Amino acid sequence: MAAVDRGSSQGRDALGRLYLIYRYPLYAFIRRGGHSADDAEDLLQGFFAKIVEGHYLATLRREGGKFRSFLLTALKYFLANERERARTLKRGGGRELLSLDLVDAEGRYQLEPADPLTPESLFDQRWATTLLAHVFQRLREEYKAGQKADLFDELSQFLDGKAHGTEYAAIARRHRLSENVVKVAVHRMRKRYGEILRDEVVRTVSRPEEVSEEIRHLIAAACGRA
Questions:
Q1: Residue 119 lies in a domain
Q2: Whether 5 contacts 19, CB under 8 Å
């Protein structure tokens, strides 16, 4: 909703966040649909050009359900329209595009396993892993701001809930802390991770009761069970 107002700094920031989180999942969907790398890049740029121009986001409403579903539906509509055109949009197309330094999408796509995932399943899986990576980075930035980046790098291995007392003890010795302090720090890190995850998901659903369901879907998709 914030991204609709492109004239404000909040709107531009929101649009940039959408681009960062959804660029690769959308690219993977297009590629898995049978398009070449060049065509997929053209189509993706054309799709985001439509978003920048407000052609799609302007139709989004609070009661519109999950943003993940809305965005994929919008992409399918865009691709259907493009199939009716004589040729695909040229890269950039003379439109205003977002200027962001991103990892090469095709390079990432070439690392995708040769599995029978449908384009929709691949989109969900890459949406989930990208969003979780974003949550992880937000958490790390908080620790970095508190001059605790080194401690974060060691404790973050326990975010999945697996831990062993010997590992806690070793970390405690390296940082001159008690083992109990390390355990408490891990507990707080997990709690804060959950809070950030919930904050990110809240931004993508229209009703509070959808948050827990979307988180469950996110975890299942990241694990390949969706």
A1: no
A2: no
